[in-house]
Every structure is written in C-alpha cells, then in structure tokens.
Specification:
Layout: E1 8-11, E2 23-35, E3 41-51, E4 59-65, E5 73-79, E6 83-86, E7 90-93, E8 98-100, E9 102-111, E10 118-121, E11 138-146, E12 149-158, E13 162-170, E14 177-183, E15 187-192, E16 201-207, E17 218-223, E18 230-235, E19 247-250, E20 255-257, E21 260-271, E22 274-284, E23 292-295, E24 308-309, E25 314-324, E26 330-337, E27 341-348, H1 349-355, E28 357-358
Parallel strand pairs: 22-25
Antiparallel strand pairs: 1-27, 2-3, 3-9, 4-5, 6-7, 7-8, 9-10, 11-12, 12-13, 13-14, 15-16, 16-17, 17-18, 19-21, 20-21, 21-22, 22-23, 23-28, 24-25, 25-26, 26-27
Amino acid sequence: MINAEKGVLLVTPRMIKPSSKKLKVIGTINPAAIRRDDGKIVLYVRVIERVRVLETEKYCYSPRMVGEKRFKIKIDRFSKKNISKSSDFDILFKDNTKRLTFISHLRKVVLDESGLKVLSIDKKPSFYGIESDSELGVEDPRIVKIDGRYIMTYVSLSREENISTSIAFSKDLEEWDRKGIIFGEQDKDVVIFPEKIRGRYVALDRPESNFQFSPPHIWIAYSKDLLSWGSLHSMEIPKENNKFYWRMGAGCPPIETEKGWLFIYHTVNSKGKIYIYSGSAALLDSKKPTKMLAKSRPILVPKNKYELKLYQKKRILFPTGIVWDKDKKHLLIYYGGGDVVTAVRKISLKKIMRALVKVK
C-alpha cells in the first residue's frame, strides 16, 4: 500500500522524450498544480534539457529559443577565446556575463482524482519560451484559478531581462495568453492568492539582492489588474531558535482555511557542508495577509532517496503546488525532489495546524 504521506514519485526524466535530438532531459521538477473541473489534477512540470555536446576543442554550446509562434530551438556556439570557464551547467564569459548549457520548458501532466497516479503526459512541450518572451527558458510555474480563469506565474529567462517573473492567462489549461513580465530581475517564487482581498489581487514574491541589510525574506504586493503591482512590503519571518534561514521564498499558492490563509514556503538551511531545502507552513490573517498569525518548523523534509542530491551537497524538497484532497481533510503538496524528479506528499490539514506555533 502506498504511504502518500512519505511521498509518491510521479514524474522522472526517463518519462519525458527530449524536445530535440541535440538535447537530453536531466530534470522534471517544481510543478504547478490545479484541480480541473472534472476532478482530475493537472500539473505543469518544469522539464530541464541540457545540450548533449557541452563543448568541443574550440567551442562551448548553449541553447536558445528562436521561434515566435512555435517551438523552435537554436544551439549557439561560443569561442573558448572569450570564455573564462565552463561547467556542466553554465558558461562564464570574460566580460562576466553567463549563458546556460540547459533550457527549461513546461510539460502538462494529468493525474487521476486521487492526485497520486499519472494518466497522461504531453508528448511535446506544452508551454515554452519564444523569441520575444523567455528565450532562455521558462521555469518553476504556479497556477491558481480566479473567477473561472487560470492564472500562471512563471520564471522567464532572457538575455536582456535576465531572470524575471512573467504571467499568463488561460480558460482551459491548454491555450495561454502571455502578458509579459510583472516582477523584474531578480524576483522569483511569485504566488498569487486565489481570490481578491479587500478588492485587490495579492501576490507573494522573493526579490534577491547582492546588498542586504537583513536576512532573506518574502515580500507582498497588490494589484487591481494582475499586471501592475504596487504597495510593496517585506514580510518578516520570525527567527528559528535565534537563527535565520540561509534562503527562503514562497512555495505553493496560499489556500484559505477557517483560521486564515495557509501558506507553504521553502527554506534553506545547512547541516555541516550540506544544504537542505525544506517546506514550512505559516498562517496569515484572512483580511490582512501581511500579518502572520503562526508558523511551523519545517514539516516537509527531504528523506527519500530521490530527494537527495548529495554529489552537489544538497538535499532538496521544493514545494510549488498544492491541491485539496477529495476528502477536504488532506492536502496534496507537489514538489521537486533532488532537482531531478516531481513527487507528491499527502498530509492532513490537522497535522499541519498542530505544527503551527503562534507568533508573538
């Protein structure tokens, strides 16, 4: 019998056919998740593809999207005369700019009503970068449904805008209307609340800075149209045993409970030389989400073999999707494991609530 609380492996690189003969799939991670009107659950999984030939004697290679209305990829080549160093994952040029040896697109995966069994996987990329939007790839989507419309935020990579967050709308989870960047570089992990609060849309985001007066934290923003965001505020996450996490950011979109908005976020701490990515919970006030009522220690901790990436000294459980179970008593939390696979854990709402400690 499957113990879904301990984790169920759903999607692995072996299950995905590469989008090009010049690429190979190395990761299927960090899915958006939403329950469709027919009861089935749809994931949009980030598929990572790396060039098969990383370098030759004279050149290094990097992929880029060049299509506008269709999936079309080009492999750029760069002379080693202009390169400081290269690795399996990136190329560093002498002018201190970079290119990646991989590119990501999104693949639609349909699960059964239990959310634990894969029914189908799109054979081709379902959502991908185009020349004018995310030419260097799309990553780490989140999806909510508001007033009958699906809203997807995703990380968009390009040579001009670097790493930003963009938004797209859909009526059917099939065709997407891209609306462009809503949070500029480098602002990631954007999740939108599934309903308006006091007449405005609300989002949580995680800007990064090279100059910090405080430890990493999460921000909140408001909008009237989902496109222009303002009224920005940082949200302080209380210390854990007088220690801050090395990094944190929004994980899954918040869900509404009787006691407030339940918010699963990711944290990164270290144990010796090993970095551990986990999922923690917070309870936000239903009318004033900047007010944190309670929080937990990590409740989703990497422990399965597929959540360990020890050769890079990382243990990774990165939550990005959350869906109510059919019984309305449990939550299905979808996540990237070990930077390689997609998995799910089923956990009772009561168990999460018991882990919350009131914030003073």
